[in-house]
Amino acid sequence: MKPGKAVKSKAIRRNRITAYTFLLPNIIGFLVFIFVPVIASFCMSFTSWNGFGNIEFIGLDNYKQLLKDTNFKISFINSILFMLISVPITLLISVLIAIALNRGIRFVKVFRTAVFLPYVTATIAVAAVWQLIFNPSMGPINGTLMKLGIDSPPGWLSSPSWALISVSIVYIWHSVGYYMILFLAGLQNIPDYLYEAAELDGAGPITKFFHITLPSLSPVLFFTTIIGVINSFKVFDLIYVLTGGGPGRSTHVLVYDIYNTAFKQFEYGYASAMAYVLFLVILIISIIQFSGQKKWVNY
Amino acid sequence: MNIATEAQVYTPEVKKKKKFAVGQAIKYIVVILVSLTMVLPFVWMLSASLKLETEIFGFPIKWIPETFRWENYKEVWTAVPFHIYYLNTLKIAVITTILVIINSSLAGYAFAKIKFPESNRLFFIYVATMMIPYQVMMIPQFMLMKQLGLVNSHWALIILGAFNPFGVFLFRQFFLSIPDELLEAARIDGLSEFGIYWRIILPLSKPAIATLVIFSFMHSWNDFLGPLIYLTSDHLYTLQLGIQHFITEYNTEYSLLMAAAVSAVVPTIIVYFLAQDHFIKGVANTGIKG
User: Fold this and answer.
1) Are both A165 and A226 inside the same structural domain?
2) What is the average per-residue pLDDT within B144-154?
3) DSSP SS3 for A47
4) Rg, chain A, Cα only
5) d(CA A164, CA B252)
């Protein structure tokens, strides 16, 4: 071995020791509270464990049971529906607001604060307010609708066909601000000279939008759709407070079901299997998005 | 002839200006409408919290209550141990935040400023865990905490909150922007690696620290699922669980519920207004560079 190489490998070892010393608290926490639980719940999903007694290995039975479970099917469909309603609308509103706020407008800070405000407030408090606002007989929304001559306005949270939409409305209201900030940051990264050059070539606002703004924003759009989809599957607080999964099962979503199965019915094995199905769904959607990105994302 | 050409030349300009003004007007209308939609529920909440029970659902909406009933707040703060919920939430949020800052900045430093072969791979695993839904680890974590005797204690929430891949990510990105030459100079001067972290990097990282303080504080303050799983005794409840009291037990008294909601929301709004720029920069930076 050449002396130079020995010195180098010694330096690497020294660096490694320092690095791991810095990482130590985090690595311990990561292993104990994330890595081990992720593996443990995978193993648990093949058992019928309820927290007490012996752990019985039952193979794929939990997963087979899930396929037959109509309640699980309803939650699964509700989660997908919730995503399909809330993600596109949230992204559309937030990108439009971001574009409007990006240039040539006054009081940007005031508007930005207003739109962002719901995001920093606790969903529990916010849900309590919306519950009253949506009150079908006395709430301000239906009061306004009836004043406008609509005799039988929707029952919102208490109507099986409107409940999921109502929850989506609150969810969209709560999260638009977050995505707006992401889009604003993306827009601010687009250099002015691109627009100036386009103007010199006689491009109008529509051309500029489709040929400069949209392509430049595509990495942010990609990122926000991924985050948006993942977040939409996570919505728990809102549903817990607004509807408790009801009326009927109309707002039962996966995370709500997992919580109930684990901490109300104590079927830990079954709940773990449900959690892994959720994980798988998120993973598959993300993989589809990642593999599709080459077609439309410009870096 | 001359005038005609001049007119021809100028018409498009005029048209463009008019179009521009219309576009501008639409822009303002949309932005104002959206902003109002965002803010009105808060105004409604505030006004309802100061009203008589019977006055809340009056139509047309009375934005300003007939008489301001400050008693509602007094009742909220005495009917249930609201001050205890406040202190509990504050305790969890503050301790978690301090631990997150220490923990994440140390790890972020290792990933950004110490060269070791598996650095990038390890960091990638870290970031990838952010995509795993909480539900996947929720049950074994609970079992573990039960074994440790930490169920129905604030420490379960604090410990779980203290390990946050997002914080590591935020610090790493920030530290990468600090030039290596600065560290090299310090190394030549004989400063230890920890000395560099503590005396050079951290003082330069106030913006990153501020961002994470706000994020972590808001996150713990607003957390619901964690306390719902881990806390069973009323005297340990956080604010978010406490509000539940008003929804389930006092559900006829909407004005009290609204007063409780306002009380729970005010601290995060204050924090947000104080540190708005850091917060927004934090969202933007971590979001975009992912």
Assistant:
1) yes
2) 90
3) strand
4) 25
5) 24
**Domain extent at residue A32:** 1-44
Report chain A residues whose CB lies below 8 A from the CB of B240. Answer: 122, 124-125, 237
Query: Complex ipTM above 0.90?
Result: no
Residue A278 sits in a domain whose CATH number is: 1.10.3720.10
Overall average pLDDT of the B218-230 stretch: 90
pLDDT digits 0-9 by tens, B229-278:
999 888 889 988 888 877 765 556 788 888 888 888 888 888 888 877 77
Q: Do B224 and A22 touch (CB under 8 A)?
A: no
Helix (H, G, I), strand (E, B) or coil at A57: strand
Residues A1 and A76 in one domain: no
Q: What is the mean pLDDT of residues B33-57?
A: 85
Q: B251 to chain A nearest CA, in Å? A: 10
Q: Is residue A52 part of a domain?
A: no
Is the Cβ of B230 closer than 8 Å to some Cβ of chain A? no
Provide the Cα torsion A62, B231, B257, A238; round to 10°.
-30
- Tell whether B27 is within 8 A of chain A (Cβ): yes
User: Does the structure show a pLDDT above 70 at A163?
Assistant: yes
Q: Are residues A15 and A162 in the same domain?
A: no
Q: Which helix (H) or strand (E) holds A77?
A: helix A70-102
Task: Report whether pLDDT(B8) > 90.
Answer: no
